[in-house]
């Protein structure tokens, strides 16, 4: 990276992943004329043995950051603890999502088995295990529900093993990566989001965009754009019984599912239009390249 900066001589370097932030900030300590932007995507680090070491390095090197971007207001607010050094530092929420209505859901009638749908990378913090346990609880109550999950990741085999152990493997479909997955998802009845930590949570926004009634935990950006019983149904983190109850309550109420789904689609179209994104990016671009580097 040091060699690349010497060759390219950029005005601005934007650092995204935590590892990139640590390396990039360290290198930029020796390139004070380059403006450093840290792009935050999640409010907290995953719970791993190295988490405290990462936190120490990020906080120590934050003195080199001139500007902080975040994918949503909640991420921006909660990551401020990673910047303890008192200094002038600009902040911005950068839109990563633009709503489209090309595949909006219009039929909310449920016929046959309940079609649940999820999406995301198969990692532990997404808590797909909770949805699998809820599927087993619904089966024990005589509720015929099937769940399709779009995505890939290291937890895939563990998810299948859990479904086998709970005797619901025949009701679970891991559909793999599908570009614009929400087009197929719009044919399902209810979207589930079970994460214990998120940034903006793109898949939730996409599900809401197409009018899927959503049952979700309230994490990350969902604090900013979801409201219980208005455009989503909120459930506690990690509680399969609460998730199963919420599904069972929502299924027989077509009017409520329609109201929640259409309200979600309308809100996404209003908050995340192409025009809003263009305006925000123009403002950030103008400010970023008009500004001289802030010396720390």
Automatic annotation (TrEMBL):
Q: What class of enzyme is it?
A: transferase
EC number(s) per UniProt? 2.4.-.-
Domain Glycosyl transferase family, chain residue ranges per copy: 111-266
Transferase keyword on record: yes
- Which controlled-vocabulary keywords does the entry list? Glycosyltransferase, Transferase
PANTHER family tied to this protein: GLYCOSYLTRANSFERASE
Listed name of the protein: Glycosyltransferase
* Species: Kaistia terrae
């Amino acid at each position: 990276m040091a060699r690349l900066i010497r060759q390219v001589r950029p005005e601005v370097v934007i650092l995204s992943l935590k590892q990139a932030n640590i390396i990039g900030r360290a290198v930029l300590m020796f390139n004070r004329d380059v403006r450093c932007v840290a792009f935050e995507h999640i409010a907290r680090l995953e719970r791993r043995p190295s988490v405290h070491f990462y936190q120490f390095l990020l906080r120590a090197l934050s003195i080199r950051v001139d500007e902080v971007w975040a994918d949503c207001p909640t991420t921006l607010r909660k990551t401020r603890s990673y910047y303890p050094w008192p200094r002038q530092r600009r902040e911005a929420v950068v839109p990563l999502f633009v709503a489209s209505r090309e595949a909006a859901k219009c039929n909310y009638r449920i016929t046959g088995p309940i079609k649940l749908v999820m999406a995301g990378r198969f990692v532990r913090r997404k808590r797909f295990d909770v949805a699998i346990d809820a599927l087993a609880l619904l089966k024990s109550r005589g509720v015929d529900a099937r769940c399709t999950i779009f995505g890939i990741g290291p937890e895939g085999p563990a998810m299948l093993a859990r479904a086998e152990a709970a005797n619901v493997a025949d009701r679970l479909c891991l559909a793999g990566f599908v570009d614009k997955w929400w087009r197929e998802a719009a044919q399902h009845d209810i979207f589930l989001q079970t994460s214990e930590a998120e940034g903006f949570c793109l898949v939730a926004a996409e599900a809401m965009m197409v009018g899927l009634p959503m049952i979700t935990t309230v994490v990350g950006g969902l604090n900013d754009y979801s409201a219980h019983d208005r455009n989503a149904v909120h459930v506690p983190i990690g509680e399969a019984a609460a998730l199963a109850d919420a599904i069972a309550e929502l299924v027989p109420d077509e009017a409520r599912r329609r109201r929640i789904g259409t309200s979600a689609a309308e809100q996404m179209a209003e908050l995340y239009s192409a025009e809003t994104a263009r305006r925000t990016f123009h403002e950030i671009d103008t400010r970023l390249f008009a500004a001289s580097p802030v010396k720390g």
